[in-house]
Amino acid sequence: MSEDAISTATPRRVLLEVNDVTLRFGGVVALNEVNFSLYEGEILGLIGPNGAGKTTCFNVMTGVYKPTSGQVRFAGQGISGKQPHVINRIGIARTFQNIRLFPEMTALENVIVGVDARHKTSVLGALFGLPRFRRRPEEFSPDANPLLVWAQKAFGISRHRREEISGEEMAMELLRFVGIDDQANELARNLPYGYQRRLEIARALATQPKLICLDEPAAGFNPAEKEALLQLIRNIRDRGFTVLLIEHDMRLVMGVTDRIVVLEFGRKIAEGSPEEVSRDEKVIAAYLGVPADVA
Ligand SMILES: Nc1ncnc2c1ncn2[C@@H]1O[C@H](COP(=O)(O)OP(=O)(O)OP(=O)(O)O)[C@@H](O)[C@H]1O
């Protein structure tokens, strides 16, 4: 058997399973027996008209809500009912439809908070780090800092300080990765809108998730920004992250996803490749728009 035949025969590994999940808010059934799986290394789109249940689905997966019935499993482990910070540690990070940054912290500090969530030392280091410990962007290098290596050998440096420094390096690298390192020391509230959206992504990646959930990351973007975002999402996947994407922009969704799950009124109405989903009559009627004279 050729190597190609072997690799195509390799089964995909399920990373996340949504099993028969129902969530009721009083009389509203926001999710109705929803089932789908997410495979390691794929970009899955979650689409549907307004109010279909997409964000609620994210909220169930990330621990904001506990399903009324059903279960979410991640890497083989049941996660429904766990706290959001526990689920984040297990490996799911997210961004929000309405940007949620720390506005009075710099871009770099916002990402350091994400890195610190992973480290054993506290998040307070990022919040109250002394100014003398904060380096300017040009002082960062992707390589080890020779002075630091020497100082570690000569004097020994505390675990906290080592983590803090490596956290800063990692945060700076992530800002570079999402393309906003030129504004590393700018307060988040002063950043242009597109930078704030990218900063949210960098902060989510800083928690070193296996899965990153992006909730309408292109909202408010112009076509050029959308094109750049599409490339960034591909780069995120190429770095080994699995991506779940809620997005209304069909060009972006069709251009970047491997598979798509479609919700309508809390029910899954279709699942498949972008081509399959875009040909599905239920999807065309529900989401892509039935011509007004037919509707
Ligand atoms: N906390 C809540 N309390 C009551 N109802 C809610 C709550 N959150 C969501 N809903 C309802 O659940 C349904 C699904 O909402 P959800 O926000 O998940 O949809 P969506 O597909 O993300 O929509 P959009 O594309 O507009 O963001 C809607 O009818 C909404 O009004």
From TrEMBL:
Pfam family, one: BCA_ABC_TP_C
Record-annotated membrane-spanning stretches: none
Residue ranges of domain ABC transporter in the record: 16-290
Protein name, entry field: Branched-chain amino acid transport system ATP-binding protein
UniProt lineage: Bacteria, Bacillati, Actinomycetota, Actinomycetes, Micromonosporales
One Gene Ontology MF term: L-valine transmembrane transporter activity
GO BP annotation list: D-alanine transmembrane transport; L-alanine transport; L-isoleucine import across plasma membrane; L-valine import across plasma membrane
A GO CC term attached to the entry: plasma membrane
Organism domain of life: Bacteria
Record's keyword terms, sorted: ATP-binding, Nucleotide-binding, Transport
InterPro entries listed in its UniProt record: AAA+_ATPase, ABC_AA/LPS_Transport, ABC_transporter-like_ATP-bd, BCA_ABC_TP_C, P-loop_NTPase
Record SUPFAM superfamilies: P-loop containing nucleoside triphosphate hydrolases
Gene3D superfamilies, A to Z: P-loop containing nucleotide triphosphate hydrolases
